[in-house]
Amino acid sequence: MSFLTKYGSYWGVLPQTSGREYWVSPADTYTLIGRTYSASDGHDGLSPERALRTIDRAWNLVTANVGDNILLLPGTHTVQTTSVTADIAGVNMFGLPGGRGNFVRQKTILTTDIAADQIINVTAANIEMGYFTIRPITAAVGIDLTDAADNFYMHDFGIDMQTPAVSTSTIGISLVSGPNYLLLENFFVECDGAQGNAIVATGALDSIIRNFTIYQSAGTWASAIICGAATNRLLIEKGSFLCAGTAMTVGVNGTGATIARGVAVQDCRFSDLVTVAIDNFDATECEIAENYQLGVGATDGGVLITAIT
Fold it and tell me: Dihedral, CA atoms, 127, 138, 189, 28, nearest 10 degrees?
């Protein structure tokens, strides 16, 4: 059942889908068109005035490969008890996408109270996510993809690595298990010190990471993106690695990389506070083109990066 607002907007087609819309509230009560409603996992979730209370319940109700959407109402959704398992193929999960939103600071936030555990574990193919910020807990992963998460698409999102206490074990998105055909685009990462990597691309195959800004606001960060063993045919393009902290030691880190020409980095920009923009690849493991190191007050537009150390 769709919901018709007094302005005539047809919420059931936002976003357009051939499936059903399952609405989820971040709190026990929520406000909709000036009215207060109670959320409950006893609801069917099929209309915004009958929202579910937990994301996990929504994933239990959706059907594979029929276009079902999970729509997260604005606010902070805190996962409790166990990680959300995104295990139904072909399902989409979005914050409200009206007007596309500002991916630097989305109105919908996903986090968790579970110590040392991921917020979402993606274990099925053809899943799309977007229009929310992921906020991992200290020393844990925000979103973890298994090898079954092929064709995962995430866009218009943020990764908050500034709110968690500093830990080198805090990771934004992990692709370690080796899914294929991933696309991550239009995102913003904020970090305030010696956290783990925003993206661990180790194992990613036939994938693209593009159109992003990674911003370090304080402290020293070892690296933002790491491409380790078995990473192959991964393109990183049109990214900005910016710093106001002490330093980002490496922007794109090839420690552990094993495959010749397995990674390509093109058209990226790196702050002058990034010690080495692209580092720790062996001679044949990474191709580069049109990447620049910025300069403070530089009159030459920055320095072309011509070598990987």
Answer: 60
Pairing state between β 199-200 and 75-79: unpaired
pLDDT band, residue 89 (cuts 50/70/90): very high
Nearest to 201 by CA among 152, 139, 158, 136: 152
What pLDDT score does 11 carry? 56
- Rounded to two decimals, the pTM is 0.93
Report d(CA 56, CA 47) in Å as an integer.
17
CB 286 within 8 A of CB 264: yes
Average pLDDT value for residue range 168-181: 94
Whether pLDDT at 4 is above 80: no
Among 199, 200, 300, 290, CA closest to 238: 290
CB 230 within 8 A of CB 260: no
